[in-house]
Amino acid sequence: MAARVWHARSARMVACAAVLAVTGLPSAVAQSPSATPYDVSLFKWAKTDDAEGFDQRPLLNELVVSVNGRVLLLGAVGTEAGPTPVVWGSDDGRTWSQLEGDLPDGTVAFDGVAAGDGFLVITTRGDGDAGQLFRSDGTRLEPVVQPGDDLIAIERSPVGVHMLDSGGLPTLWSSTDDAATWTPGIITTDDALARHLAVTDDGTIVVVGVVRGEDRETPTAWSSADGGATWHATTLPVEAGRWVIGDLGWTPIGMLTRVIDATQPDGPGVNMLSPDGITWESTVETTGWGSVGSAGPEAIIFGTDAAWHSPDGVTWTEEWWPTLAGFDIVASRQMPGGPVVAAGIQTAAPGSSATFVGAPAPQVVPTAPIDLTSPAP
After folding, report:
1. Which end of the chain is more exposed for a tag (fewer CB within 10 A), N or C?
2. In what order do the strands lie in the sheet with 315-319?
3. Which residues make beta-bridge pairs with 345?
4. pLDDT by residue (tens digit) across 270-294?
């Protein structure tokens, strides 16, 4: 996926949980195996320790988790001279420290992917403008020779590493030798803005963006089953208008993307679900700009002071988690042991941010029979 641009909004409480039955979807969608099956409705969240820079008008963009559990948080902090890119690292999602390395001033750490025994990270000045590539061992960052200047997203597939280039014609750069050399492939010749990148469990590469018209955009997904050599375009099932692609990610129930109405201040949007990155159906509508993620066997959509989760894409349960109230959750990732780490920016006062760790609360098993008899009157 690629990082998102986040806007301050008034906080809105949703003080109840509701189950939404969503129709019109296939009864079965692609399933990803869950390392730790559990009930997301039992989730409890804990706010983690503040890190250096979390109170400096931060812009948080993305979380990246390696197979050994090392987590990187990508973003920037505000200064009088402009944004200063920052990458924070953690071994548990609770305690964070800034990585060493000279990142270009005026940019933000935008997107990243676990690669080999470390990470690859993209910085950018805007939506792909002046993008630069860095390699990290989880403690420091070093620049890497890159193929293009308008990098906006990076992902890994079974055949290698892929970077989305948003300059000119949308292009996917692919490397099969650990980012040593790159091969370009044109995604589409349409006047399009390619915004997000993800990969399905079977290795299909999916790019989501908009095809631009005179005064409106058509949300579109492009998919490639051969490592980016050829592409298939699918128009998403919404009418053309002023749309923004909010997020894209592979989840336990399939590929999920958020299509947001840019004409509304609170970012109401339609979430699109696909079992393969090719065929798409509308699913639950949610408020807020939000982000998509996974927890055990379920997909999660974070919105404004609320979240929705589903094990099948048909039934969605809306939750209000008090610890997350007042925060836009811009990214979340499941760690190898099962807990989910999330990053959020305060909606009422966007000068500060926080990270959270969530997992199902332990359930107390009675050690003796429970007496259910009523007391005598």
Report:
1. C
2. 18-21, 315-319, 307-310, 298-302, 291-295
3. 328, 353
4. 899 999 999 999 999 988 888 999 9
